[in-house]
Amino acid sequence: MIKRKADTVLKVAEPAALMDFLIAKMGGMARSSVKQLLGQRRVKVGNAIQTRHDFALKAGDVVTVSSGRGNSQLTHPKLKIVYEDDDLIVVNKQPGLLTVAATPGSSETTAYSILRAYVKKQNARAGIYVVHRLDRETSGLLVFARSEELQHYMREYWRELVTERTYIALAEGVLNPREGQIKTWFTEDKRNAMVYSSPVDDGGDLAITNYKTLRVSEAKGEGLEAKGYSLVELHLETGRTNQIRVHLASKGCPVVGDRKYGHGNESSPIDRLCLHAKVLAFIHPVTEKTVRFESPVPKEFNRVLV
User: Which residues are catalytic?
Assistant: First the structure.
């Protein structure tokens, strides 16, 4: 155990769960006290704040426990931090929240404005920068950079940095075939902000989505419910605007609740667009190690399939 300034620095000798490691190394500290440390965001593994008690430590990891009150916590019903270090913040966004304001000077609450206020509490000179976006009604994982330089780098090399990007959608009807690849060319009409898909190269941008049907509900009721619903896993090879929504609509199975490319609330037993960014893995631009994050599938998606 080495003390530097006000922090306790611990070196991991062998693999262990973070909770067990801290209980063993922190002088017999009670489990409830360790949970409090984690909840107060006072524990770092490497340079990343860690709040999961079951986080798997590896030999050689360095665990730092702050003896202060810890970093300010983000408490917002529509945004939760799932990872944070000196370079990046990864969040889980709820539906109904824009990534960034649609127009300059807007006072609407966004993921960006929430995070900006959060980092300013830690350091008045700190900034936060948008790396990529999710549609307002899409939930799931988003990445923000802590510097403008890092933002520009990640945007420029996004396709090379991302190693896995998986979405879950609740779709109308049943895809045929139930597993496969959708490859089309996209053209956006600036007049109505709609994206149109062509099965042949018409000069548009190539869009490729790989999909797999996970579950299917029985058709019941009348109208759109008679088609049933499908829970679909989608992996993006390209990242075009509205790609999943356009591709599923092109297969005759639009995303449930999609007002733009589907039937909107007419098709939705729940009041939202049923699209969720579940998995995001990428090469950390500073450490050059692959980091992977996963967000649970919204419970309401599975309730529809019962």
Answer: 135
